[in-house]
Design goal:
The protein has 9 helices and 8 strands. The chain is α/β, with parallel strands linked by helices.
């Protein structure tokens, strides 16, 4: 398999940090705001796909451009520009958590620019009776309890440590700031569910069964709103199944991607 690379690209004049690796059909993975790195799941997906993981504006290694982002559509346009910059034509777009929200908004507007869509515990919907938790007010222990199926596991402690390692403090703060900006400015899109019918590419929705941050009712709402979508749950996983259960998550994704498009 090709070696994973890191590079900085210019996207409309802004520096954007990019991880890429593997070979095969392109897969653009929009990261969450808890672990914006090249992860084991990316390595697994790169066995069959060329995987691209650009870091969101404002995250460590990417230029802070969120002052120019007034609406989620501004972020979608940024990623359309990313695709043009690195010459991605109709990639699979996958996204976890906040990245899943971006992917959903993108597919709702510009389905014809994608080949397939994968949403992993995506934010973005407003579901009556099942609001997302306010995790930004929680201490690390309570956040792990909310976010992980097993909050005492090593991966939970590494992702949300009581005290970040010195080398990780800046990247952690910047990633949380990105989530906070959207969480406070527009924590969800009350109109998103209304227009999910406009997603017209094969779609897989993956959800951790123990997600205490974004209830599984949100996954079911995405499934019901996107015609012909596939809904897959990951047992014993919380909000970040791509981090907590990467093998199960990768196997589900690769199985879905191996199917013929409808």
């Amino acid at each position: 398999m090709k070696t994973r690379k890191e590079e900085t690209i210019k996207v409309r004049g802004r520096n954007t940090r990019l991880y890429r690796g593997g070979g095969g059909p392109p897969l653009l993975f929009l990261h969450d705001t808890f672990c914006p790195l090249w992860l084991p799941i990316h390595q697994m997906l790169a066995e069959q796909h060329e995987v691209f993981v650009p870091l969101h504006p404002g995250c460590a290694g990417s230029e802070d451009g969120f002052g120019q982002f007034e609406k989620m559509e501004d972020v979608v346009f940024h990623y359309l520009d990313v695709c043009e910059t690195i010459h991605l034509d109709h990639p699979v777009v996958a996204g976890g958590s906040f990245g899943g929200w971006i992917a959903a908004e993108w597919a709702m507007r510009y389905s014809d620019s994608l080949s397939k869509l994968i949403l992993i515990d995506a934010l973005g919907l407003r579901v009556d009776g099942a609001p997302a938790a306010d995790i930004l007010s929680l201490d690390p222990g309570a956040m792990r309890q909310t976010m992980f199926g097993n909050p005492t596991a090593a991966v939970a402690m590494e992702t949300i440590p009581d005290t970040p390692k010195a080398d990780d403090i800046v990247s952690t703060i910047l990633a949380r700031r990105v989530l906070a900006r959207f969480g406070w400015q527009f924590p969800d899109n009350p109109r998103l569910g209304r227009y999910l019918y406009r997603v017209r590419v094969p779609t897989q929705i993956i959800w951790g069964e123990r997600d205490g941050f974004v209830p599984i009712a949100h996954g079911q709402a995405y499934h019901e709103g996107i015609n012909g979508s596939e809904f897959k749950t990951i047992p014993n996983a919380g909000h970040l199944p791509h981090i907590e259960a990467p093998e199960s998550c990768a196997q589900a994704i690769l199985k879905f991607l191996s199917k013929d498009s409808r």
